Amino acid sequence: MDPYKSLGVNKDASEVEIKKAYRKLALKYHPDKGGTKEDENKFKEVTEAYEVLGDKQKRAQYDQFGSVGGAGGGGFGGFDFSGFQNVNVDFGGGFGDIFDSFFGGGARKAQKNRGPLRGNDIEIVVHLTFEEAVFGATKEVEISRYEKCEHCKGMGNEPGSKIVDCTTCHGTGQHIKIQRTPLGQIQTAATCDNCHGAGKIPEKKCRECHGEYRTLKNQKIKIKIPAGINDKAAIRLSGKGEAGVRGGEAGDLFAHISVSGSKEFEREGNDIKTTQSIHLLQAVLGDEITVKTIHGDVTLKMPAGTESGKVFKLKGDGVQKVGTTQKGEHFVKIMIEMPGKLTKKERELYEELVKEAKLNIKPQSKGIFG
Questions:
Q1: pTM score above 0.70
Q2: Can you tell me the distance from the alpha carbon of 303 to that of 289, in angstroms, rounded to the nearest whole number?
Q3: CA–CA distances in Å: residue 257 to residues 127, 128, 223, 260
Q4: CA separation for the pair 125, 308 (Å, rounded)
């Protein structure tokens, strides 16, 4: 078979064109896509073709002699596919990822690692009482984070020493591996373990951070909690996360708010809700009652004939809206409380009321009259 025809390229095709053609066909016929037996054979054919045309020496030999390595048969040079089905290739990130690693993806990652790297963000939980959330507070928290090394100023080298090319990758930030696989010789580029892709290392590592640019420290930070903050809200403190590397900016600190409840008040957004019990006679005749709000006691004029379950609104006595001077409302629900055990005089008065109302009722001996 002709490897040029198998890949669908001309004999003067460039290396880029050959690689592109192989990638397209390999993706189309790859066995992991669950194709037919014919697709599997086609995949083997295009892979064997690339084994020849992707290697300069083999391609030159084929162009001159019409075969590679003197192998006969239907192939291009005796490429052995035995055991192919046992090869486990992970395409979890998509077919493109595996070919990126074949054709230079690792190089791009190494190049990216050379520049400044932003520090990691830090997330913490700050616990507040009900009152701290309503009125605001300043909380001091202790966090553990990587900070720029003070001794080397974040450079990684001992002051006075130089920054030199990495002795492992020789300044490239990556190391090349050539492996023989059922797909032929595969060249992969991986980030250098010694310089982590930077291409440079300290001639003499900093004695404090050991060339890691940063040191781990415990730090106390004060966080200003705004009045009116809600449970599960988050406060972002820019630049208060971990220090960056090689001049990269610091990450951010995210404080997630957890607010405890109150025994007296129920909060809903910026509104406050309470329930207040009154005497039966207060409901019948009306009254001025004292309602406890988060801002102090307020007098509520309750009209005569107030029914149990009636809700009154105290405007502006709720929680301050974050970042404004506006406040929510306070809603108080009135519940009529039946009187306790009556005295003889109280009973007589109630009986007089019954007569006055011309009610035909039969008082019972048990309950409040017992």
A1: no
A2: 11
A3: 6, 7, 11, 10
A4: 42
